[in-house]
Amino acid sequence: MSADRQVQDEVRERYAAAARAVTSRAANPLELVDAAAPAGCCSPTSVTTDSPTSPTSLTEQNSSCCGGNNTQVGETFGATLYGEREQNELPEEALLASLGCGNPTAVADLREGETVLDLGSGGGIDVLLSARRVGPTGRAYGVDMTDEMLALAESNRAVAGVSNVEFLKGTIEAVPLPDATVDVVISNCVINLSTDKPAVLAEMFRVLRPGGRIGVSDVVAEDHLTPADRAERGTYVGCIAGALSRDEYLTGLERAGFTGASVEFTHEAAPGMHSATVRATKPTG
């Protein structure tokens, strides 16, 4: 088995375990995740509260996803990065399954009637929020490679009562949508997990309509950190070792054809590693 395939399999199983943990409502979902997959990746943890149906209490108990050894995951990753109003719009399971490092729906500045694609949509939190932002005349797609996450996302869609949503099975390196299908591509702490990032950036460009844009939250390294330095700070499936540097991100977006690219650090995820917002536009010509 190639190293790239091994990473992809580890990522898939880790997120499948996270979905099973949320679905089972285990007292400690992390135990299920650790039993099912190699250590070091994204995973929700929870504790019992007196008010288990309160979105606020759920996000307070939720520590999730990616990070290095020095990461405060409850503050850096997960549903706590969304505002109270957004949390109140979502099913409990969508909040508990939140494994991201930002809020790409805010980064993307979504508008009524737009079509949105979320790469690595997981339990559906950003797809559901996007669907509400674009309204009944818009549409939100989510792509994920993990069956368990797709099932959880469909369940969350039904609970949320959102109809302008479609979840698709596929990889972010080969998006199952035609060319020039969407107005906006979002993603939340997923691109760093890909072992073929040029393919991901090319796919974003391909599915966007001319004039379309990306609004991505991702972990990004400071330019002085080598790949070895990044690996010392966390694992690949932990969203750290595979992160691009800021310059690598900007160069990759330019090579894919994007213009106006920017990478803005928002908060530190590990020493020299940051959650960041990534923006770029597909030219109209």
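(the above was protein one; protein two follows)
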Amino acid sequence: MTVAAQRSAASRLPHRQLRRACLPVIAGTALATALTGCGNGPETASATPNSATSAAVSPTRVAPTTQGTVPPVTTSGSADCATDLSAPEIRRAVATLPPYDAGGGDTWAWNDNPPALRGTYNRCSTLSVVVVTIQRATASSPEHALLFHKGDYVGTATPKAQAFTTIDTGAGTDDTVVLTYKTPGSCNACPDGTSTTVSFHWNGSGVDMQGRPPIN
């Protein structure tokens, strides 16, 4: 919400295309170009990382698709600009996500219950995010980061679910969402894990991703 080679290609998709697959974030031929960036530089992709990059990376554009430290939450239906994790737009966005495939024929539905959500969603933000996890989740369960522009869902930040996703509200702005993904080391809570910071910026017609998440 792992790439051996660095990437630098960027594809641009119109805002309304976001409601198809997984923000280039989801998957597909045209979606093949995604929000992936190289560890050392920005990239432009649709919400699905898959373009090779060199050490110096240029921003990746993220186009729309279908498929924590947070401000106070208000009740659903509020017309102001406060954070509202019970907004119906969030429930509708979660409903577009296919069940998480845990393997062995097991699937898990995503949890749209407001107390289980983390995020900055409000209808006035140029770009906001909501992190959703599966039902009966544990600390290491998969999560998807859902991106919204002025209250409208534009797609997931990454085509595949990630675990240990943190919203860096201190680094984010009205038009930029910053997420930190943790890759566990010898154990989930061990200090030898690594963190990857990725930013998502609204460019006026879509989302540019700078950096590359650990799972693509």
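Reviewer note on protein two: Residues 1-58, 63-78 have pLDDT under 50 and may be disordered.
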